[in-house]
Amino acid sequence: MVLNSQKRIARIVQILREATKKMAKPAITQIVAEYGKDPYLILISCLLSLRAKDSISLPVSRELFKIARTPYELAKIPQATLEKIIYSIGFYRSKARQLLSVSKELIAKFDGKVPHTQQELQSIKGIGPKTANIVLAEGFNVPAIAVDTHVHRISNRLGLVRTKTPEETEQALKKIVPKRYWGVFNALLVTWGQNICEPISPWCSKCALLKLCPRIGVKKSR
């Protein structure tokens, strides 16, 4: 099978859809399942999940959403109070400042509504490419490939791309992944990265993609 062919990518997506059915879904996927496609809640969940495990960020998001579900509601929360609400998450002080800043900027620039273009989203301080793409894909059904550490790592291990940064990976994947898969690509690879294709010593013996994977850069596996 030709490397990077659309047939190979389609096969990878097909295999992962089946293999991840019983696995815990990424935090953002669970937020969408519980609260619907609310771009603001997706955005806030993404910001909370940065540099944090889903097992920590997901409960924190749920607690916060009991109190605030709009930028107007969140912007009214004193920073000290917000810090207490999200205290169990790493970098809670800086994240509290960020949530307040983003919410106030949404109110000032966009009448409290989350914009639906990457350029507008990234014009907001604190929103990077990955977060913007997740919001577009999950909140607006706009084709977008969100690349985090899992997507970057696994795409390189599979030999789909040969890149050094998530930003390079995003641009490379856009050229080879059919648009119909852009929205699901992140969730599938994140789930796989959290459970099987771990950063150090991946579970290659359990991997449903083993026959399709050249295991580029894998020095030790289980």
Protein model, in words:
58% of the residues lie in helices and 0% in strands. The chain is an all-alpha fold and 222 residues long. It has two domains: 88 residues, Endonuclease Iii, domain 2 (Orthogonal Bundle); 103 residues, Hypothetical protein, domain 2 (Endonuclease III, domain 1, Orthogonal Bundle). The radius of gyration is 18 Å and the shape is globular. The two termini are 26 Å apart. 35% of the residues are buried.
CATH architecture grouping of the largest domain: Orthogonal Bundle
Largest sheet: none
Q: What is the succession of H and E elements? A: HHHHHHHHHHHH
- CATH H-level superfamily of the largest domain: Hypothetical protein, domain 2
Looking at the structure, the CATH topology of the largest domain is Endonuclease III, domain 1
Helix content: 55-70%
N-C termini distance: 26 Å
